[in-house]
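Problem: given the chain below (270 residues), write out its structure.
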Amino acid sequence: MINNIPQIKHTGSGNFFLMAGPCAIESEEMALRIADQIVNITERLAIPLIFKGSYRKANRSRLDSFTGIGDEKALKILSRVSREFAVPTVTDIHESHEAAMAAEYVDVLQIPAFLCRQTDLLIAAAKTGKTINVKKGQFLSASAMRFAVDKVQDSGNPNVILTDRGNTFGYQDMIVDFRGIPEMRSFGVPVVMDCTHSLQQPNQASGVTGGKPALIETIAKAAIAVGSDGLFIETHPDPANAKSDGANMLHLDNLEDLLIKLIRIRQAIA
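Solution.
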């Protein structure tokens, strides 16, 4: 069901697909640098890639948190990544009026987890004709995501992806119920595991979200083992100094070794 995404490659390889890139578009130089490395890795490993980057971060704990470099500027950078590296791109949208704007620049529109029940937003995204990646709310069961799929498909767009990012566990932690992956796959849509946001530690007293990046490999391995169609991994060459979500991102230098291990697991269960 990802075959209709423009410029998607290696769909016949038997591998999982990958949504990867920085949390936010920080600069053109940084986006191109990250894209270059991810594209080279996924080409060598024959992994279908969708490059990820948020043009704006609307959901921040603190008013002084980084939100973006400007909507149009960041979207143009995503468009340049797509042109220069011949890969599809994905970004998240937050309000209904953003759907048509973002659709002019990217190939996949993502609905943030906190907004996955927003009917008007899902309909507006569906109406663009783009593939829609809906993140499962931290507050929802996997079975409840059937209604998000219905909202998009009943609006005339059959192209839906669901992404699990864990469930709220107490006030400052997330937990992943891997039963949700086969549950959501039963809806007839591709299912992705978000291996980085599922390790967030939100609601810290500092107002800056924490994370457990050392467990990214654990989450990714388990997801592939239970049949996840794709993985979502935010990655950066210097997570400690990333402007958004650095605490739970994978260091870019560790991406290739991780993907090689995951390919072996995929082959073992095929």
